[in-house]
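Two proteins were folded this term; both appear here.
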Amino acid sequence: NVSKLQPTWIFDTGDFSDGSLYPSRSAFETTPLVVDGVMYLSTSFHRLFALDAETGDVLWQFDPKFDRTIRANLLLSRGVAYWSDGAKRRILLGDQMGRLFSVDAATGEPDRSFGTGGLLDLKKGITDKFPRTPYGLTSPVTVCRDTILTGAWVADGEPQGPAGDIRGFDVRTGA
């Protein structure tokens, strides 16, 4: 019956770079996350979409204003993470600029109680001595209970640079 399968819906994020307009090419490598009938996915320019999983209709989108002029081997995001305590539901989106966003899963609005207005600067205290060396997230963070665990994307061709150490942050505050 595989030959009889047909697409139910198609969604185009519109986020693509072949290297002609922006200095880096992009790759769509996200793994969508479906929670309670909503599909969450991130794009190669780190935009976050919430789609109705049955219809593909856009429920909301969050644009972190990612700097598309960043030079990288590839612009990509491999996905997002989800956290809930039963009352609050959050989507956690990291980007290649070293930022981590906590976004309300129902509205797409930043969680103002997290970090600074919904944003946690992961570069702070890590890249101070290496301001031009790449540091960021390409893969989703991991959430264990109320702790966000992050690694980092670092330049592996640099003789010295920021460490890609695994760190833990409070999921409610970013502390």
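Next, the second protein.
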Amino acid sequence: MCVIFSSSVDITHRLCRLLQSFNNLSDDDNNESAGKYLFKGRVAEMSRLMRSDERETIMRDAANGDIKILVSSDHMARGIDLPNIKLVINYDPPSYAKMYVHRVGRTARANRIGHSITLLKAGIIMIIKKN
């Protein structure tokens, strides 16, 4: 499973819809890949604007492996543990180093292997200070 973090609810929603569109593309409705997902599972979003029952359903589906890509605002960066997260992508770099640690901390928990990628725009330098 992959979690993609963005800096706002609006970006989360737009990125999720774009990935959902890609996920459902098929060259031909008659070929054997028709009806299958490009990402081998659903793409879903998680944000503070969702009702708690919606968030619970998303978390249950993600834990069951039904969701392969979860696009999230920083709402999910702290306190949530999904054991099957193998990749965290920071679509927008976080403003603070502490938030970066919370985001990438969703993967490689309890001696599991995981990876993180942070996408940076031209002219942005990320400096992490250890106090």
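The chain has a mean pLDDT of 79. Residues 9-23 form the longest helix (15 residues). These notes refer to the second protein only.
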